[in-house]
Each structure stands twice: as structure tokens, then as C-alpha cells.
């Protein structure tokens, strides 16, 4: 009885098993590397260095097996790495909330709900609260409103007529701004913003009676 068919089948199963193990190992490694790659991508220089390394490593896996050993699996993996290095986009400019807070000198950041500037559509904002100023910034960190903290006279959370709808009314000098909150957490978010802005308001000094002031 000839053993050639059995040998060929065994080699085919061995190749398939190695390919399957290689794919599973590569997927597991990618899952572990994703958080690290996200951190690297925030730095443009580190991301470029990673792309260059990936390209050289992929090219090496394509060329070396041809001269040292016959491994088409390594060549395929190297080709994929080389193409990935070419197709990966450059690191975009990335500004985080913490970066913006440090830039502005903000002490606290609270949810500002939705704010509608003049003649524009409402936009979700965050309130960056500093010792001297409060900024309402949209999702792109563009300033929609800037309020001097020492001029704020009141910050009140008021329930609107609709269910789960609250507004935060901020008054300063001759101006007023309203921030709208909707949803089941609307009251909580409005109250947090009210308390935060209220803590930044300067309390007026008590006025002593004239008799007590003279005796002092």
C-alpha cells in the first residue's frame, strides 16, 4: 500500500495548522498592541518612527526568506507589514481636554449642555472654569462664549416646561446666557454647573453699621 497520499494529506494539514496558528497569534498580538499604538500615534515623531520600522521589518521578511529559507508565510506577513506602513495615515494634530484646560488655565471643566450663539445652531459645549474667566467651548475647542468670572452676578438652574429639560441661566453685567440640558441627567448636570459657577462668584463684603465701624 502506498503512503504517498497519506503523507501529502499530513503535510497539507500541517501547513494549514501552522497558518491558522500564525493568524491567531497575529490577531492576539494586534489586540495587545492597540492601546500602545494609540498612545504612540498621539506623538507625530514616534508615529513616523514606528511606520519606518514597520516598513523596514516588512521588507526584511519579504527578502530574507527568499535567500535563507523557503517560507512563503513570512513573505506574506512581511508584505502585509510593508503595505500597512505605506497606507497608515500620519498622526493628526490631537488636542485633548486636559491640554486645552492647561492652555486656558482652567481649574474645573463641567458639562455646559447645549448653547446657541447669536444666529447659529445650538452646539454642545463644555464650560472651562478659570479663576478669572469662564469659556464655553464646542467639540472642536472653539470658543463660543467668554465670561469674566468677577462680573457674574448669578448662575441659576431652572426647570423648563418640558420633561427632563433644564436650563442654566448665567448673568453678568448687562448680559445673560442660557445653557440647555436635556435627558434623564439634565437636572444633575445643570446643578453641577450651577454649583461650580456659583463657587467662582465673588461674595460682596459685609457692610458694617456705621456705629460699629466707628467704634472699631
Helices and strands in order, then pairings?
Elements (H helix, E strand, L loop, with lengths): L3 H38 L2 H25 L3 H16 L9 H8 L1 E10 L7 E8 L2 E5 L5 E6 L3 E8 L5 E8 L2 E8 L3 H15 L9 H6 L1
Antiparallel strand pairs: 1-2, 1-7, 2-3, 3-4, 5-6, 6-7
Helix pairs in contact: 2-3
Description:
The longest helix is centred in the N-terminal third of the chain and has 38 residues, at 4-41. With 216 residues, the protein is of the alpha+beta class. Residues 211-216 have low confidence and may be disordered. Helix content is 50%, strand content 25%. It folds into two domains: 4-87; 97-200, PH-domain like. The chain has six helices and seven strands, in the order ααααβββββββαα. It has a seven-stranded antiparallel sheet with strand order 4-3-2-1-7-6-5. The protein has helices spanning 4-41, 44-68, 72-87, 97-104, 186-200, 210-215, and strands at 106-115, 123-130, 133-137, 143-148, 152-159, 165-172, 175-182.
Question: Gist?
Answer:
The protein is α+β, with helices and mostly antiparallel strands and 216 residues long. The chain is built from six helices and seven strands.
Order of helices and strands: HHHHEEEEEEEHH
- Per the principal axes of the C-alpha atoms, what is the gross shape? elongated
Low-confidence sequence ranges: 211-216
Give the fraction of residues assigned to helices. Answer: 40-55%
How far apart are the first and last residues' alpha carbons, in Å? 120 Å
Number of helices: 6
Total separate domains: 2
CATH class of the largest domain: Mainly Beta
> What fold name stands as the CATH topology of the largest domain?
PH-domain like
- Total strands: the figure is 7
Class by SSE composition: alpha+beta
Report mean pLDDT, rounded to a whole number.
76
CATH architecture of the largest domain: Roll
CATH superfamily of the largest domain: Pleckstrin-homology domain (PH domain)/Phosphotyrosine-binding domain (PTB)
- In which order are the strands of the major sheet placed? 4-3-2-1-7-6-5
Q: How would a crystallographer describe the biggest sheet?
A: 7 strands, antiparallel
| Strand residue content | 15-25%
**How large is the radius of gyration?**
31 Å
Amino acid at each position: 500500500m502506498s503512503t504517498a497520499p497519506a503523507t501529502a494529506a499530513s503535510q497539507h494539514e500541517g501547513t494549514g495548522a501552522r497558518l491558522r496558528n500564525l493568524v491567531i497569534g497575529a490577531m492576539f498580538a494586534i489586540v495587545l498592541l492597540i492601546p500602545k499604538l494609540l498612545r504612540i500615534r498621539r506623538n507625530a515623531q514616534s508615529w513616523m518612527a514606528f511606520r519606518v520600522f514597520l516598513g523596514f521589518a516588512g521588507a526584511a521578511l519579504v527578502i530574507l526568506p527568499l535567500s535563507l529559507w523557503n517560507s512563503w508565510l513570512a513573505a506574506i506577513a512581511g508584505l502585509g507589514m510593508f503595505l500597512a506602513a505605506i497606507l497608515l495615515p500620519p498622526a493628526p494634530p490631537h488636542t485633548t481636554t486636559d491640554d486645552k484646560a492647561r492652555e486656558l488655565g482652567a481649574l474645573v471643566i463641567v458639562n455646559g449642555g447645549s448653547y446657541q450663539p447669536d444666529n447659529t445652531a445650538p452646539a454642545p459645549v463644555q464650560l472651562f472654569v478659570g479663576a478669572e474667566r469662564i469659556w464655553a467651548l464646542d467639540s472642536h475647542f472653539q470658543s463660543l462664549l467668554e465670561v469674566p468670572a468677577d462680573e457674574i452676578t448669578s448662575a441659576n438652574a431652572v426647570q423648563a416646561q418640558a420633561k427632563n429639560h433644564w436650563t442654566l441661566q448665567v448673568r453678568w453685567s448687562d448680559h445673560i446666557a442660557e445653557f440647555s440640558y436635556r435627558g434623564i441627567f439634565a437636572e444633575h448636570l445643570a446643578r453641577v454647573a450651577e454649583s461650580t459657577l456659583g463657587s467662582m462668584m465673588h461674595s460682596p463684603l459685609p457692610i458694617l453699621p456705621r456705629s460699629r465701624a466707628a467704634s472699631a
